[in-house]
Write a structure and sequence with these properties.
alpha/beta, seven-stranded parallel sheet, six-stranded mixed sheet
């Protein structure tokens, strides 16, 4: 009885709501009902642009343009869309209708454009895909109805909102999704002082002084000459375009700090340049009151200075060291992070967060961090953060970047949106229903997996960690097959082919990290031969075809070429097809010291191979040489040992200096001295023959293989992948 009672009550209120939401005709081609757009007589170009934005959207639905009227008086015989800027109103934009006219009013012309698009998104059928498809009068809708009354206002959770993906570089995207773009607002961005000062005849005094030497890789921020050059440049940039009113002043990306007399006098220490940097910022801020000046809490900008900062000085706080694919509130970093933000917030009015949204070692890693980012954004908002820059894949393509850009934009405006609904809406507005459903189901699944799983996945990670975090190979391979079945019907869709490129690469990476077995690229037969699966070749052909068709050439921050990746498969893996691997998964012992992060020694003989990326399938030794103890009975039939090594000088990884075969008393049996190679990034195969029956020294039942690290000065490591006895 109670259930019926509540059902009737619910139906009653639903009827009331439906009654209250009467619709009326805004436009009718048949009845010749056409509203006008009204802007003030004094409207500038920016307000006129908002009127054009409304007109273009209207045409995209109806195929018709509206008349834009400049006046302060309204004709009672017409319906108007009234567009106004009111800097004193509380909310960023408001949409109102209580009589026949519609008013869209905002604090700025930019927010007015956001309000215009919010009107179409909320009260019409227009979506972003349709916004980019121009209709004409023959295929537009013939009637447009909207509610007879409405009133809604909106303001963002953050004043600065930028998802740094190429999707956001397009004006249409920003207008629809309410985002910022650094190229239009920042007169100086990043570590770019060197680009500014290179046009001047530079005195040595602009450079950091350490001891008695000036070091040109860092700057002295109390230098009068440096200030003069930057101050002039700021004026020139701002005068050229008043929208460029934000400036980032960062020390160069290293740990050098100037300790000249004037820098020490303002508070610099040997490790902290913040006092001099903020002294510099304050001087700029006083000279340019209408602009804002930022630095970043990064490397040498550490402690809060003891002097007061100007009101138009701000700070970016980077999460690079704590972004591990887990909400900050669920990590050990929370207390220190909160404390740091609160301390800086007490010092400066504007704190922006520099956050991260991709795996920079693999842009094709889906890295579905939407819900992790949502929880982090709520934390940032609670702590009073004013802006967020979400560092994505910049100008390069990353998997599902359009979806990420779209949903991150929504979250930056309103952290409380329903992410699952946003995923569903995005895919179903963009793709045919069957494909959209498959994409929605899978992306929602991995988003939840990524969010729930407390395994770390840092923003520089190999595929092995990706698999542990969210990329279950059984589920992923099943989804890939379902996705691939849609290829014929969607082969002319460039976005589909971009996703196909990334997913195909990702499947190959999973196969590479699994090596030999169900999800790997090969099997091993009863003769201990590696048999590369036909599927691997098919996938490589697909990757080449898809990537060429959409002109995607690279796959990570360092711009490693896809062509080189395909070549690595052929050079490193395919040559072992039908070759013996007597050492595959045989027991052995490591008797040297292991690095803390590289204790899994199975990578040395589990059938996986490393390419030029150091974080996948390589065993790295930086604290000791690599020394193995092996029993001869496990490698009967082999005549030589083949090793693969990586040289990556950027990460201080070098080829070995010596490879030795020793007995258990460390008596030398065989020795190989590799030739010196100064290549910066490459892999190399090296082989050493096992003793034959004609050699003086024979292989004992238990023997030692010692691989010695390079003799280069300073920090150096050794990277070895598969050790093959054949």
């Amino acid at each position: 009885m109670n259930l019926k009672k509540y059902t009737y009550i619910g139906m009653f209120f639903l009827c009331l709501f439906s009654y209250a939401q009467k619709n009326e005709t805004l436009y009718s081609k048949k009845q010749k009902i056409y509203p006008k757009i009204n802007i003030p007589l004094s409207a500038d170009i920016l307000l006129s642009n908002a009127a054009n934005e409304f007109n273009n959207n209207f045409r995209n639905i109806t195929g018709q343009y509206l008349y834009i009227e400049r006046s302060h008086n309204l004709n009672k015989n017409y319906t108007y869309i009234i567009l106004r800027v009111n800097p004193s109103q509380k909310e960023s934009y408001c949409l109102n209708k209580k009589d026949r006219n519609i008013t869209i009013q905002a604090t700025t012309a930019a927010n007015l454009v956001f309000g215009v698009n919010a009107f179409f998104r909320k009260y019409t059928s227009l979506n972003f895909k349709e916004k980019n498809n121009k209709r004409n009068e023959n295929n537009g809708i013939i009637e447009l109805k909207i509610p007879d009354k409405f009133s809604s206002c909106s303001s963002p959770d953050f004043e600065y909102r930028e998802p740094y993906f190429s999707s956001n570089f397009k004006p249409n995207f920003r207008a629809w999704n309410k985002t910022n773009y650094l190229e239009l607002e920042w007169g100086i961005w990043g570590h770019n002082i060197s680009k500014i000062v290179k046009e001047y005849n530079l005195p040595q005094s602009i450079y950091a002084k350490v001891g008695k030497k000036r070091i040109e890789s860092q700057y002295c921020f109390t230098s009068d000459s440096l200030f003069k050059y930057i101050n002039e440049k700021v004026k020139t940039i701002y005068d050229s375009d008043h929208a460029l009113n934000k400036y980032m002043i960062l020390p160069n990306d290293n740990s050098i700090v100037c300790t000249c007399a004037s820098c020490k006098a303002v508070g610099n220490t040997t490790t902290d340049a913040a006092p001099a940097v903020f002294t510099f910022l304050n001087k700029l801020a006083k000279n340019h009151k209408k602009s804002s000046f930022f630095t970043a809490s990064y490397f040498t900008v550490k402690e809060i200075p003891r002097f007061k900062a100007e009101k138009n000085v701000g700070l970016f706080y980077s999460t690079i060291d704590i972004q591990k694919g887990i909400p900050i509130e669920d990590t050990q970093y929370l207390e220190n992070f909160e404390e740091a933000i609160k301390r800086w917030k007490n010092y400066l009015e504007k704190i922006y967060i520099w956050d991260y949204a991709v795996n920079f070692d693999n842009y094709f890693d889906i890295y579905p961090s939407l819900k992790v980012t949502q929880k982090n954004l709520k934390l940032y908002k609670k702590l009073g953060v004013k802006g967020v820059f979400l560092h994505g894949s910049e100008y390069q393509y990353s998997t599902f970047q359009d979806l990420k850009s779209t949903i991150f934009s929504k979250l930056l405006w309103n952290t409380d949106i329903n992410v699952d609904q946003a995923i569903y809406t995005y895919f179903h507005e963009k793709f045919p229903n069957k494909l959209a459903s498959a994409l929605t189901d899978y992306y929602s699944f991995i988003t939840d997996s990524f969010f729930i799983n407390k395994e770390e996945l840092a923003i520089y990670s190999g595929i092995n960690k990706t698999v542990k975090k969210y990329l279950n190979p059984k589920v992923f391979f099943s989804f890939y097959d379902e996705f691939d079945s849609n290829t014929e019907r969607n082969k002319y869709d460039i976005d589909f082919r971009k996703i196909a490129t990334a997913l195909t690469f990702l499947k190959l990476e999973v196969m590479r990290v699994y090596g030999i077995g169900t999800y790997g690229f090969a099997t091993i037969n009863n003769n201990e031969e590696i048999i590369v699966k036909n599927e691997a070749g098919i996938m490589l052909d697909k990757l080449k075809s898809f990537s060429k068709s959409v002109n995607i050439k690279t796959y990570n921050e360092l711009k490693y070429p896809i062509d080189d990746y395909i070549k690595s498969w052929k050079e490193t893996i395919y040559k072992y097809h039908k070759k013996k691997h007597y050492f595959y998964k045989k027991p052995f012992e490591i008797i040297s010291n292991l690095d803390e992060d590289y204790t899994n020694i199975s990578v040395l003989n589990n059938g996986t191979f490393g390419f030029k990326d150091y974080n996948t399938n390589w065993h790295i030794c930086s604290i000791d040489n690599l020394t193995l103890k092996i029993e001869k009975k496990h490698i009967k039939g082999s005549k030589k040992i083949t090793f693969s090594f990586l040289q990556d000088t950027k990460h201080a990884i070098y080829y070995p200096s010596v490879i030795e075969i020793l007995d258990t008393n460390y008596k030398l049996i065989k020795k190989l001295n590799p030739l010196v190679d100064k290549t910066d990034l490459a892999t190399k195969e090296m082989s050493i023959n096992l003793p034959s029956k004609f050699d003086d020294e024979q292989l004992p039942d238990t023997f030692i293989v010692k691989i010695s690290r390079s003799n280069v000065d300073g920090k150096n490591a050794l990277a070895c992948d598969e050790i093959i006895f054949n």
